[in-house]
Amino acid sequence: MKRTEDAETALCHMIEAMAPGERLPSERSLCEDLKISRGTLRVFLERLEARKKVWRHVGRGTFAGSRPLETNPGLSVVADTTSPHELLEMRLIFEPKVAQLAALRASRQQISQMWYCAKKTGIVTDSKAYELWDATLHRTIAEAAHNKLLLDVFDAINDVRNNTDWGRLRDMVVSTPARQRQWWMQHEDLVDAIAARNESRAEEAMRKHIESVQLMIQGAARNQLSLMPE
Amino acid sequence: MKRTEDAETALCHMIEAMAPGERLPSERSLCEDLKISRGTLRVFLERLEARKKVWRHVGRGTFAGSRPLETNPGLSVVADTTSPHELLEMRLIFEPKVAQLAALRASRQQISQMWYCAKKTGIVTDSKAYELWDATLHRTIAEAAHNKLLLDVFDAINDVRNNTDWGRLRDMVVSTPARQRQWWMQHEDLVDAIAARNESRAEEAMRKHIESVQLMIQGAARNQLSLMPE
DNA sequence: TATTATACCAATTTATTAATGGTACATTTC
DNA sequence: GAAATGTACCATTAATAAATTGGTATAATA
Prior knowledge:
By secondary structure, chain A is mainly α. Chain A is built from ten helices and two strands. Chain A has a two-stranded antiparallel ribbon.
């Protein structure tokens, strides 16, 4: 009885002397040092964990201090748990302002590339090709904002977009020639505003464009929902 | 002479028949199949790479089609290459809209937590504690937007913020009681707008707040620049 | 009842091995 | 002499194996 209590206080002192985040020896070596069995040691550690004195993780070890905020998982893993609605809301926050900055800072070469991409979105026939040129256009605009951090965030969001499998939904984006014509005209309008260095018009054009997509997707999702058995 | 040319055209046809992104056999097995040496094969591949017909990567292989956009490196690694200016521009794009959504969707509990954090930013004395409560306030607002993807993006941006070492710059944020009072009042105003469910006022308050920080940091950076030897 | 001893599991890290494209150089072939 | 070959080695990456860790169950022991 006495010996194990001594071991517990020794363990506590040991932990208090450690810097937060520092790693404890493994359970197997700790129980040797303290001359107690692994089972009893784990009882002590359980209490310490409840008191937020340590935190544990299988395969890694036991650490002093309280569990750190889980590190950013890279954004692409959230693809499974996010919805088209969330993604479009995000893009609606982000991209209009990006277009505004692009209107200020785009180089002539970038603008001509935008024209090229926009034209392509009007003439390609299959949905995969459309998506490619659409993505390239939007990314060119993000590049034209000339802010590296902003571009990285854009790519991170796009990663989510690419790693989802709302497959049937995506095909609907260019389901009809009329729709494709609508997106193409919006693209032309957007690039025209950027080329004219008209900040507010560029922002507005991008906002309108994404809102259109949002409306379309919402409608499609509703239809699809009513058709699906579960 | 003739045989190698045949091999080159055969290689071209092979690649054209492949789907973009598909992986070619390794150089060592390809040159066996085509009955040519690795050196000449590599000359062909070099030409194909220049024409964007293939792209190569050491340790991975050679792939058909044009090189895909480089994958998101995790956002936290860009911390070294980004600047306070870029970060604040990013936040200025992002957070006002987040505040607007928060005004729509914040729960009562979240609002009371905002009040608590805002009050703390007014009374704490050391700059580390200020940063803690400031960060908690801003993150609570992001949570209140109730969009998981948005929150992840917010955390990613914050990661950059934490992983930089513009140390002296950060201390200046609360360098004087007058400054701290300024930020505190802006925080109170912001939370008040959210609590009142006033979207446009919340957006405006957040914009004003970040613009103030932006101005301050710019001024501080200028001063520091003029003091630094290199 | 409390403690020990033992065995096994799933998650994770670390170490090892194998494979890839990149490069240099001597050799062969036409 | 120019073109092609054969060979050896490197740095990077992927694939695999081995070792370690916390988590859990069970029987034996004090």
